[in-house]
Design brief:
Blueprint (H helix, E strand, L loop, with lengths): L10 H22 L5 H6 L6 H10 L4 H14 L5 H4 L3 H17 L5 H8 L2 H34 L3 H50 L1 H14 L33 H19 L1 H8 L4 H17 L1 H16 L10 E2 L2 E2 L4 H9 L4 H37 L5 H26 L5 H25 L5 H21 E3 L16 E3 L2 H26 L31 H18 L2
Parallel strand pairs: 3-4
Antiparallel strand pairs: 1-2
Length: about 575
């Protein structure tokens, strides 16, 4: 697609877009007068209501990677993509709310690396701070790249201009209003995304002839697609979540049930939701600990339903591509496959009339803004508190750290622009992100798990465990490749390939498994060989067995996190069974 096929927006569409961008920056301007301390800027003064923090918790994960990446995965992998929600998100979100938020909130840690310092030592915190800062910059850059590509392809705007304009808007409202500005914008973006994409699902399903018509088309997709052995997939491979996971060759994702359950459902899922400061930061701004525990639980409810909003369009797109509906929609070919990444933009262009098109494009841009802002606010907090204050400029005034936070925002945006230009060389943002998570979040989750539930874990054990886990991820990635890999970034860079995976996602899952397992075992071994340096008193509030439980007997059962979590898990189980 080029500028000649770009969208022609009407006056109503342009009005909606301009109003959205004006409102985004306006929120930052209004909130600037309340940014009087570093706590206000980085943690919103810990005064955000639970429902607002809950929607922000969800929206921080609703960036370009989710909206465009999950739709692309829905087309490429079918209903198995729902595992990223019902297996790879909801159980971990419940665990965060029930078990982990009391530690984060009660310790008064301002970031995940700071919690590591309180529980272990400075070197463990510093290692994680640097690795996390690198990860957020890459993630933000991917969002910027995707948005610039969207504006370039759909509106015919120059790619460089699109990139710098999107960066300037995010910089403006975070620089002015800090985390509070990002959170209130994320809440607005959540509703925009729902309003913008719900009509798309309706129109696409109507074009398919309803759910039954879509299922018939996806059976055709399966019968005309082939695995590595040249065999056609079973008819239900694109509409079943669990039925075809006995062997990697039986499903389009190329993953067997253990790789899915362990790699995604345990390591990557819990590693992301439990330790990624980008999302944890949204819960830590809640007005009290009870509210903070409810934040992930509130977010888990709409999270369960998002496959029908972001994955279903991809399934509709691939179904219509193989057997056209009345409107004639089809995905374009890219190389030897389809251009999956452009599923949502092309469907918006195809189905939406003037006015609705403006709303849909605004919703899509809102997802990019959400992804960029979430990563930049997490970056400026970790840089200021865990790197700058700890190692460069100690004992400065609060106003100095507030100034540094704003400067870190500028620096984070500039670094993100640099990584956005790097992302031009890659073609699958979701695969790239899961690979980064396998390197950073997978070993970190092993460290957290042992640190929170085994008081014998030592600082030396945690540090060398993290180091070993990251090295194990690099070793596994360097010795394996996915089928059709065209770049050393996808693996095999050590020069000797020991294993070939059916897909990039399968390789990511197993990279995460090796990383987590290595960190877990090394941390245990070194902790047993090194003495404890922190007493039980030092670890009070940081280790589960040494933390006082808050009595929630005065609350009705439906307000207690443990019961809310059980209900949410039951609902997720029902969805897994319905689409098994």
């Amino acid at each position: 697609m080029n500028s000649a096929s770009s969208i022609h927006l009407g006056p109503v569409d342009w009005t909606i877009l301009v109003l959205y961008f004006s409102f985004v920056v306006g929120i930052g301007v209004v909130l600037k007068r309340g940014m009087k301390s570093s706590t206000d800027f980085f943690l919103s003064g810990r005064a955000i209501p639970a429902w607002i923090a809950g929607l922000a918790f969800l929206s921080a994960n609703l960036g370009a990677q989710e909206v465009m990446g999950m739709a692309a995965s829905g087309a490429k992998y079918g209903m198995m993509t729902a595992h990223f929600y019902w297996v790879g998100a909801v159980p971990a979100m419940v665990f965060v709310g029930v078990f982990m938020m009391p530690f984060y909130y009660g310790s008064k840690a301002r970031s995940v690396p700071e919690y590591l310092k309180l529980r272990f030592d400075e070197k463990t915190r510093t290692f994680n701070a640097f690795s996390f800062a690198i990860m957020t910059v890459f993630s933000s850059g991917i969002s910027m790249y995707a948005m610039a590509k969207l504006l370039n392809l759909l509106l015919g705007w120059n790619f460089n201009m699109s990139l710098w304009i999107s960066a300037a808007i995010v910089l403006a409202y975070i620089f002015l209003g800090g985390l509070t500005s990002a959170i209130y914008n994320e809440v607005m973006q959540f509703f925009l995304i729902v309003l913008g994409f719900a009509p798309l699902v309706f129109l696409g399903l109507r074009d398919c002839g309803g759910w039954s018509g879509l299922v018939q088309r996806l059976h055709l997709v399966a019968s005309q697609s082939h695995n590595l052995q040249g065999q056609a997939y079973a008819p239900g491979a694109w509409v079943s979540a669990w039925k075809h996971m006995g062997t990697p060759g039986a499903n389009p994702m190329g993953v067997e049930w253990f790789g899915m359950a362990m790699g995604l459902g345990f390591v990557l899922s819990f590693g992301y939701w439990c330790t990624d400061f980008l999302v944890v930061q949204r819960a830590m701004v809640a007005e009290n600990e009870t509210a903070a525990r409810k934040v992930p639980l509130i977010a888990a409810v709409p999270k369960m339903l998002f496959p029908f909003l972001v994955i279903l369009p991809g399934m509709i797109a691939i179904g219509l591509t193989y057997k056209a509906g009345q409107s004639g929609f089809a995905l374009p070919v890219k190389g030897n496959a389809f251009d999956y990444d452009m599923t949502i933009p092309l469907m918006l262009k195809h189905y939406f009339p003037t006015g609705l098109l403006g709303l849909g494009l605004t919703a899509l841009m809102a997802s990019f803004m959400s992804g960029m802002a979430g990563n930049v606010t997490a970056f400026n907090t970790v840089w200021t508190y865990d790197i700058y204050q700890s190692h460069i400029a100690k004992d400065k005034s609060d106003s100095h750290y507030l100034w540094m936070g704003r400067m870190a925002t500028v620096g984070g945006i500039l670094l993100s622009i640099l990584t956005a230009y790097m992302a031009v060389h890659f073609n699958n943002i979701m695969d790239m992100l899961q690979l980064i998570f396998a390197f950073v979040n997978a070993p970190l989750f092993a460290t957290f798990l042992l640190g929170m539930f085994w008081k014998r874990t030592t600082g030396h054990g945690a540090f060398f465990g993290l180091l070993s886990g990251t090295a194990a991820a690099a070793l596994h990635h360097g010795l394996s490749i996915p089928v059709g890999a065209e770049s050393l970034f996808k693996g095999g860079w050590l020069g000797h390939v020991l294993h070939v995976y059916p897909s990039e996602m399968a390789q990511n899952f197993w990279t995460a498994i090796w990383s987590w397992s290595t960190c877990f075992l090394v941390t245990i071994l070194i902790s047993l060989l090194t003495p404890r340096t922190k007493s039980d008193g030092d670890l009070r509030g940081l280790v589960y067995s040494l933390t006082e439980r808050h009595d929630e007997g005065h609350l009705p059962w439906y307000q207690r996190p443990i019961y809310l979590g059980a209900l949410i898990l039951a609902a997720a189980l029902v969805l897994n069974i319905l689409f098994a």
